[in-house]
């Protein structure tokens, strides 16, 4: 009996150790007068990676933060690449699973510039509380070729009291000698064994001397066994 008790306790301690593993990676490479900076922070059950590369006088900054609390798992990735331009990439993944709830947050941000400015921001937050489940996935991509590209993506989900919420957000901005901006904000909220899901996709592309923008907002809220879904897609392309 004593051996069984020790084995059981050891198993639970091992599982707890695995669930709370944190991993962070930061890589920065610069050449030919370039400047690169990478920052990575991971806490709790989380993985974070930041990669920055710059050349020919370019500047690249990548910042990644991942936080996993309780039964939450977070994965964050940020990549910045600049050739004679400026690339800024920021990614945040925050998952909180408490009181029997579970949460998953996945965030990815990519910024690439050739002689221009590329800014990419991605945020994924998920809260699972009191047997609730929440999943958020956010992706932001900004590409600039002697232009300006700004991309912002936010996915937030809340699952409370047995509710199940899922949010997926994708944002892409491409500036080819012009200005392109994309904003995608997706929110889902489910309470009392309800289900809510939201999906948003935004794409903007601008040609020489053009200014273009795309805005996406998708919100779903459900309660007391209800089901709510929202899907939004906005695509704007200029020559």
Overview of the molecule:
With 239 residues, this protein is mainly beta. It has one domain (23-237). It is built from one helix and 15 strands. The strands form two sheets. Strands 1-3-5-7-9-11-13-15 form an eight-stranded parallel beta sheet, with no helix packed on it. It is flat, with a radius of gyration of 20 Å. It starts with a helix and ends with a strand. Mean pLDDT is 92; it is low at 1-19.
Q: In a nutshell, what does this entry contain?
A:
Helices cover 8% and strands 76% of the residues. The protein is mostly beta strands and 239 residues long.
Order of helices and strands: HEEEEEEEEEEEEEEE
Given the helix and strand composition, which structural class is it? mainly beta
Largest sheet: 8 strands, parallel
Mean pLDDT: 92
Q: What number of domains?
A: 1
* N-C termini distance: 75 Å
Low-confidence stretches: 1-19
How many individual β-strands? 15
Structural key phrases:
1 helix, eight-stranded parallel sheet, flat, disordered N terminus, seven-stranded parallel sheet, mainly beta, 239 residues, 8% helix
Layout: helices, strands, pairs:
Elements: H1 2-19, E1 22-31, E2 35-44, E3 46-55, E4 59-70, E5 72-83, E6 86-98, E7 102-114, E8 117-129, E9 133-145, E10 148-160, E11 164-176, E12 179-191, E13 195-206, E14 211-223, E15 227-237
